[in-house]
# Entry
Amino acid sequence: MSVMFMAKLAKPLMGTARVVINSIHIKGDLLLSPILDGEAVLYSFESTPEVRIGVAFGSGGSQAGPGTELPGVSTWLVKLLTETIAKTMVEPRRLCFSLPPVDLKKQAVGGVLSVTVVSASNLGKKGASNELGNQQSLSGSTASGIADNRVVHAFVEVEVGNLMRKTDTSEGPNPTWNSTFNMVLHGETGVVKFLLYELDSGGVKFNYLTSCEIKVKYVLDGSTIFWAIGHNSGVVARHAENCGKEVGMVVPFEDNTGELTVSLVLKEWQFAGGSVTVSNSLSNGLRSSLDGSPKLQPRTGSTLRVKVVEGRALAVNSKSGKCDPYVKLQYGKALYRTKTLSRTAQPVWNDKFEFDEIAGGEYLKIKCYNLDTFSDDSIGSARVNLEGLLDGASRDVWVPLEKVDSGEIRLEIERIQNDQNDNLKRSSSKVEAGWIELVIIEARDLVAADLRGTSDPYVRVHYGNNKKRTKVIYKTLAPQWNQTFEFAETGEPLILHVKDHNAVLPTASIGNCTVEYSMLSPNEPADKWIPLQGVRSGEIHVKIVRRVMDSGKKTSLETDVSALGKGHKISAQVSQSIHDLCDIHHCLYVCVDEHPLKLLTDEGQPEEMRGLS
# Structure
């Protein structure tokens, strides 16, 4: 068997090259361990196996394997594969192969796991200073295991990938925590690591003591297997037949320096085919209205509505103690951000955004920031799998933030299937008699573009090839415009660019946003505050209406245009007559069908026409 892939060449070489793996040779003693009464098998190498890889290299259009050997690349691949095998499937680390009686033909792409760290026992029974070696502590100092057979204050850090949570500190050789965390799995398997730390006598530094881990795997019959290394390299394994079932495990720490008691509940599995298996009760931090239907759902022509509701237990700035949080959402190439809230670790945003659904399992990426004077601090990130959503259903979920000790963001996510027939009818009505009425009302919390700490803001409106702008409001970060613009609706994006006016230098951008209007009902106004993108703060207040006139009626624009055309013809004759009689160069008032009309004065300014008495 040969494996061919394309490699991008680094400078000074240019372009790409074909790399072919002609052979992979792995030699070692494989150990098989049946568990759970033969429902699964754990497998591993007794020692690090011998690995050889044959690699060849070439370029060009021929499909035949190139003949140039690459010993350097081969050596690198051998080292990479050997290290990977040693970390995952060399004793006592093992992988699991399940033997389910039923195959539901569903591919798990993610899940939500509730982890409760209950207690630890017999800590410090075996000194581990030599075995553990020098390891880096959280504070940057080194640690040498459980010294003097005693633990003063200890806590456990739980890790799943980049997601980390830690318990409170508990005292004694048998500490109790009873701390529960919601963790996110990305894929059908996951590793939950438990790292034990000790707080030193000064209460400042944290010293690493020992660790253990539990592995999780989705089984094709819809169940879940949990397993860990037991005493004397044995196995501790549990089987949950369905989501929501609580599983208790007692797992020894490395080098038998104590035991950890935990409780695990797999709350939800999410699948690539558009279905979700959930537990019967998801009231604590995770609520979902999805049913467990395994039906495949169409994945095109849908809209995802995401509401960033609130946050809790967000990290604060270590120096100032403040938290001015905002959230950025990225889905594909679309990027949005919420407004910034001041001085709160429990923010409530209630900001809504819409995304066109992307096929292929695209994640919704979340990044939370704390606004700062010079550079904003990251206070966590997360990925949300959106593949389990059905049409018309919604999810209300607390998403734990990764790469931080605490923090969760609550999202409400809804998937809507757009009706193509309605869209065609709507688009045709747009062409015949539809227009957009946009009122730019005000803005707030704009960034200061001038040295004096203010801005001279105005707004440029881009709608297809149409470009309009508001007046300039000088020396303010909270301008009020109250200007109305109208555009014949074409379905193109409506984009607002907020600029800082400068008489000498080029204008500076102080944010932009896109005004969504396609989902609005005809003739029903929407009043909204929209966060500005590309800047640290700022929102703009607009009101937008999709105007659609009734059949047989003319729009106000058409009426004005026809009336103006008739008025100009009459005004030209009357203006000339009166100009001959008296040398007056002001606007003239003429009554046409008892309606006031607008004319231009000699100076080119619009004036209203009224009936002559």
Notes: The chain has four helices and 40 strands.
